[in-house]
């Protein structure tokens, strides 16, 4: 799994690279029929043949092409996208970084073969997209006295160890009794108070105290783990009544993180990883789509700037905190290399320089946004369709 620290380290290494750098993104999804038999490797090698700078070799060192091909030919666990970065300096020292992602990125879903290879500045925008789209999330699985917290990142997941280490055996015994009570169906009857003063169900009153005390303690431990790892979304899995009660005990922003409450993926303590993965990821993607639609609603209500010219100008005047861009876009903008400024049209860019250069929006949006403290939000599905139809293909939320 690519964890938080690994992602930060990769990012730092790419930022420090001197140019020129080879950047490659490829669709390697084994479920894609076009990738059967390693056909994606052939497509990548064909794309690399068109970059003459990486084929130079001497009697003392292989070419950068040879080293990259060796890395491509390595067998790796199944993934959907390969990102690869390579550079060879004048002393023959080679930098190679292959990142296999279990998620798709927009750049490789192209008519031209689902491979994009470039020589020059490190092309990190698709990798930044993946970090933006697949936010750090967690899944809490509840089954009686078995509570497990899993971290999801870039389509992968792993259990977070030690979250409940301080809970002792007696606490778990009481928790099991409370969980059995909830699953028995008596919880619903207990919601209506007995006004007769009868104490015939004393255990129910005791259980109410146990539930609140124990469940709140466990939830606080979960919140602590979410905070420590920078988790932004949470999915809870378990018996509905029990999971709903646990969800109600999360406080403030942690409660707002809850994206879904899902059925128990297992009748016992052993969880099928594939089943957990297949349940949680669609729920997280659905939450992302809902958040994208809410962003567009806020932009519409303001209203915020819409269309390339208005949005690019607003970003460069520091007026934008979030810009919404389609998951896949072929839009072009105009760049003034000397000043670093942009225009949504050639005429707009000519305010800053005499000879602006037309460039792909997807290649430059992160640099433009970073320069002016703006966050990029890629949107997909219905939100992407709405962005094109209602907002001219790009829109932004005003900072002020």
Please specify the SSE layout and strand pairing.
Elements: H1 4-16, E1 21-27, H2 39-48, H3 64-72, E2 81-88, E3 94-101, E4 115-120, H4 125-133, E5 137-143, E6 146-153, E7 156-159, H5 169-183, H6 186-191, H7 202-229, E8 233-237, H8 240-248, H9 252-257, E9 258-262, H10 273-301, H11 308-316, E10 320-326, E11 332-336, E12 341-343, H12 346-349, E13 357-360, H13 361-371, E14 375-379, H14 381-391, E15 395-398
Parallel strand pairs: 5-8, 8-9, 10-14
Antiparallel strand pairs: 1-2, 1-4, 2-3, 5-6, 6-7, 10-15, 11-12, 11-13
Give a description of the structure.
Pfam families: baeRF_family10. It is a single chain. By secondary structure, the protein is α+β, with helices and mostly antiparallel strands. It folds into three domains: 4-133, Translation, Eukaryotic Peptide Chain Release Factor Subunit 1, Chain A, CATH 3.30.960; 137-290, 2-Layer Sandwich (Nucleotidyltransferase, domain 5); 302-398, Ribosomal protein L30/S12 (60s Ribosomal Protein L30, Chain: A), CATH 3.30.1330.30. The protein is built from 14 helices and 15 strands. It has a five-stranded mixed sheet with strand order 7-6-5-8-9, with helices on both faces. β11 (332-336) and β12 form a beta hairpin. α10 runs parallel beside α14 (381-391). The radius of gyration is 26 Å and the shape is globular. The relative contact order is 0.10. Mean pLDDT is 83; it is low at 188-200.
């Amino acid at each position: 799994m690519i964890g938080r620290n690994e992602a930060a380290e990769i990012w730092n290494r790419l930022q420090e690279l001197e140019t020129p750098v080879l950047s490659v993104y490829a669709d390697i999804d084994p479920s894609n029929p076009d990738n059967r038999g390693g056909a994606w490797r052939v497509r990548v090698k064909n794309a690399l043949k068109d970059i003459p700078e990486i084929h130079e070799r001497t009697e003392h060192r292989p070419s950068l092409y040879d080293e990259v091909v060796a890395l491509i030919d390595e067998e790796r666990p199944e993934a959907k996208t390969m990102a690869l970065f390579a550079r060879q300096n004048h002393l023959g020292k080679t930098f190679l970084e292959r990142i296999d992602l279990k998620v798709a990125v927009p750049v490789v879903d192209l008519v031209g073969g689902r491979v994009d290879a470039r020589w020059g500045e490190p092309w990190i925008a698709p990798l930044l997209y993946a970090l933006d789209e697949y936010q750090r999330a967690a899944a809490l699985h509840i089954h009686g006295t078995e509570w497990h917290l899993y971290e999801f990142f870039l389509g992968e997941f792993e259990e977070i160890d030690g979250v409940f280490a301080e809970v002792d055996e007696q606490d778990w015994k009481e928790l099991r009794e409370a969980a059995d009570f909830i699953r028995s169906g008596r919880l619903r009857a207990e919601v209506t108070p007995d006004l007769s003063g009868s104490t015939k169900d004393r255990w129910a009153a005791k259980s109410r105290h146990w539930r609140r005390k124990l469940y709140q303690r466990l939830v606080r431990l979960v919140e602590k783990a979410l905070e420590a790892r920078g988790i932004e979304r949470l999915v809870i899995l378990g018996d509905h009544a029990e999971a709903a009660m646990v969800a109600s005990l999360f406080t403030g922003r942690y409660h707002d993180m809850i994206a879904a409450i899902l059925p128990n993926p297992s009748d016992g303590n052993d969880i099928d990883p594939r089943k957990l993965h297949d349940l949680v990821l669609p729920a997280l993607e659905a939450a992302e789509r809902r958040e994208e639609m809410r962003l567009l609603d806020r932009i519409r209500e303001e209203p915020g700037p819409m269309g390339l010219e208005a949005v690019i100008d607003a970003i460069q005047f520091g007026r934008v905190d979030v810009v919404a861009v389609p998951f896949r876009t072929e839009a072009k903008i105009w760049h003034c290399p000397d000043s670093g400024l942009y225009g949504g049209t050639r005429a707009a860019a000519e305010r800053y320089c005499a000879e602006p250069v037309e460039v792909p929006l997807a290649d430059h949006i992160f640099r433009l946004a970073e320069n002016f403290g703006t966050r990029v939000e890629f949107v997909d599905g219905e939100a992407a369709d709405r962005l094109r139809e209602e907002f001219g293909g790009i829109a932004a939320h005003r900072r002020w």
